[in-house]
């Protein structure tokens, strides 16, 4: 198929916030325990954190990480996780019907995040707890000294405050499954009061209010309107969540969910604009897409399992094996986030290790990178700077979730300081190569300095401990700049990152 496209140096969408490539990790399954933390493992450091997992994490250059939940946070008491480890209580985690040993709490996690060079984004419990508990948590974490909670932190060996800037006001409070679920107006009021109080403690902190748990919720998008009407002036982001699947084994429809996500972002953008006008507000609210990923391979089976199991400690839970099709999807979804970077400032892959995650680690055994690790890493490493508008003319298809969907999905970024343009291209056609002809205007003379490609695998192929790098990007060929245009052939079902300088 013929694909013509064009980018222009001055046709910009927005400056990309680095936090578009953030992540999320929850006290859930083996994400923390025997995921990032496993004292006694041959790779454990002196604090018990796994160095092999840390290496894979660091290679992603993750700017920020949301912690500790998720559904977990809505019945979590952060005070159980501070002080001497031997005195910490074992609690029942109501979200995942598991035992929480509290051997990792805020100070251990902060140590890990610092080692990983990632900024923390902390969630407060607005389910079983409320404003008072939240203000104590923020005081413990962020106040320098001379108050009860800050001095308690210092007595725990942490002299300097963490100065955490990003605070999530609860998690998925619209969801009936959430411990302490609320109606929109009551949650909006509570979020407003919490945002005001917490910003007293940390002026300049950014508040993230819960939007809908996904775009299929009965209350969507009324939830966003009602919540924002209560708290618009005191918050900075509204969160969106969405997980994806292909249970019907319809690849093109699966890939169409990339566009569906764009419509979700657009709709919430409209709600934000509406409330801003209605409230006569001066500030802007952006989107924090703080949970996204493919999640379906073992979702139903595992949900049946955990709902009835007998409170195990750090059980195997939702350890999805990602395949090549999922990697292509993730590449396209990240393209959508780049294209929507005027609205979406933060996005968190959910989650990071073991539970629905790009990194897996066997208890006592090796760690490996799943297929989806690679598009996430390439976007994080190369998708910084300014997002450019891309005009694309390519054949289209219709499917259940959308119509007129282009077979060719392209995003582009410009890093003026480095003098580079990066093109992210997904050919989602099942059988046809794309003959790409993409005009490049205003960038001067350029040439291809890097071309990475993921192609040629069975859609169902996966990585695993016995074949850790079976699916990984390789150097591409056959693409170059000619007469001011990027030209070349992109194979069917392939994802490319092409850097020009
Ligand atoms: O990431 C797994 C769960 O998905 C999170 O705990 C929750 O917020 C969402 O429903």
Explain the overall architecture.
The chain folds into two domains: 121 residues, Golgi alpha-mannosidase II (Immunoglobulin-like, Sandwich); 366 residues, Alpha-Beta Barrel (TIM Barrel), CATH 3.20.20.80. The chain starts with a strand and ends with a strand. A hairpin with a 2-residue loop joins strand 24 and strand 25. It is built from ten helices and 26 strands. The model has no long low-confidence stretch (mean pLDDT 98). It is 26% helix and 27% strand. Bound molecules: alpha-L-arabinofuranose. Alpha-L-arabinofuranose binds next to loops.
Features:
alpha/beta, Immunoglobulin-like, TIM Barrel, seven-stranded antiparallel sheet, 26 strands
Q: What is the number of helices?
A: 10
Mind telling me which CATH architecture of the largest domain this is? Alpha-Beta Barrel
Number of strands: 26
Any idea what the radius of gyration is?
Answer: 23 Å
Q: Which strand order spans the largest sheet, edge to edge or round the barrel?
A: 3-4-7-8-9-10-11-12
CATH-defined superfamily of the largest domain: Glycosidases
Largest sheet: 8 strands, parallel, barrel
Any low-confidence stretches, pLDDT <50, length ≥5?
none
Proportion of strand residues: 25-35%
CATH class of the largest domain: Alpha Beta
Structural class: alpha/beta
Q: What molecules are bound to this protein?
A: alpha-L-arabinofuranose
Domain count, please report it.
2
CATH topology of the largest domain: TIM Barrel
- The overall pLDDT average reads 98
What level of helicity do the residues show?
Answer: 25-40%
What's the end-to-end separation, in Å? 27 Å
Global shape: globular
